[in-house]
Amino acid sequence: MARNSVVRDPLVVEFLLHLEKERDQSPHTLKAYQRDLDTFAAFCTGYYGSWSWQAVDRLGLRGFLGDFERRGLSRRSAARALSAVRSFYRYLKIHHGVTVNLVRAARMPKLEKRLPTHFRREETDALFEQAEALAATDDFVALRDLAILELFYSSGIRLSELRGLNLRELDLLSDQAKVRGKGRKERIVPVGSRAVQALRRYLAAREAVVRLPGAEREAVFLNHRGRRLGPVTIQRRMHRLFDRIGENTQRVHSLRHTFATHLMDAGADLRAVQELLGHASLSTTQIYTHTSVERLKQVYKQAHPRA
C-alpha cells in the first residue's frame, strides 16, 4: 500500500490531536494510531475509489482485515489496526454525528496465545553475577548498566518508563520511584535494596558526568556526554549482558516478564502484580498465571514417577 502518498484527512488529524491533548496519549501510541489510520485510508482509496468515512461498510472493513492476511502480517497487527479504526469511528459518532456503526462490524482476529518469555532463576543469577563483576571495576558504564538491570528487575518497569525517569522521581530513602506509563498514567513502584545499592553507586559516579557542559541533570541515566540515554542504547547495553550468559534471544522486555513471573511463582497476589505493572486490565496480568502453571507442569513431569 502506498501509505506515504496518503494526504492525511483533517478528521484524522483532529482525532490524533484529541488523543494527545484530551486523552494524554503517549507519542508512541499516537504514531501507532496514525500509522493504522493511514493504512486504512489508503486501503479504502484503493477499494472504493471515491469514498468518505460515512460510506465505509462491513465488506470494506472485512476486506481491510483480509488484506493483512494476504500480505502475511500477523493477527496482532490486524487486531491493533481494527482497534484504531473502531476508536476513530467512536470519536466520529460522538463529535461529528457519523452514524456508521463499524464498532461491531468485524470480529477481532483471534490472537495466538504467546506466553511471555522470561529468565529462569539460574539465568537471572548468572546475569547479575556478570553485571556485578563488570561493575566491580567502578567503570561508569558498568555501574550504570548494573543500576539499569537492577531497576528493571526490581520494579518491572517498561523501557520507556526507565528511560524517562528523572532524579526528582527517584526516592532512595523511601525505596520507591514514580514512573509515567502508558496513557501517561503515573504510579509508584518499589525499588529493592539491591537496586538501591546499585543506584547509589551509579549516582556517585554520575556526578562527574553532570558537570559536563549541556548535561541533562534531571535525567537519571546518562551517557558519557551527559545526555539522557536513548531506548536503543539501553537495549544494546542490556543485550550485551544477555549475550554474556548465552541468552541472545531474550529482549529487554523479558526483564519485566521475569519480574512478574517470579512474583507469581512466589505466591504474590494477582491484583498486586497488576498494580505494580501498571496494567489497566486484570486480564492482561493473568497471562503470568499461565506462565506459572506451565512451569509447575514442567516440574511435575520431571519429578513425578508416573507423569
Describe the model.
With 307 residues, this protein is mainly α. It has two domains: 94 residues, DNA polymerase, domain 1, CATH 1.10.150; 130 residues, Orthogonal Bundle (hpI Integrase, Chain A), CATH 1.10.443.10. It is 58% helix and 4% strand. It has 13 helices and three strands, in the order αααααααβββαααααα. Strands 1-2-3 form a three-stranded antiparallel β-sheet. Strand 1 and strand 2 form a beta hairpin. Helix 1 packs antiparallel against helix 2. The longest helix is centred in the first third of the chain and has 22 residues. The radius of gyration is 23 Å and the shape is globular.
Range of helix content: 55-70%
Corresponding CATH architecture of the largest domain: Orthogonal Bundle
Structural class: mainly alpha
**How many runs of DSSP E, i.e. beta strands?**
3
Estimated share of beta-strand residues: under 5%
Query: Domains counted in the coordinates: how many?
Result: 2
CATH topology of the largest domain: hpI Integrase, Chain A
- CATH class designation of the largest domain: Mainly Alpha
Q: Write down the overall mean pLDDT.
A: 88
Characterize the overall form. globular
Count of DSSP-assigned helices? 13
Radius of gyration, whole Å: 23 Å
Extract low-pLDDT stretches: 1-6
What is the string of helix and strand elements?
HHHHHHHEEEHHHHHH
* End-to-end C-alpha gap: 52 Å
Order the strands across the largest sheet as they lie in space: 1-2-3
Give a short account of the largest sheet: 3 strands, antiparallel
Assigned CATH superfamily of the largest domain: Intergrase catalytic core
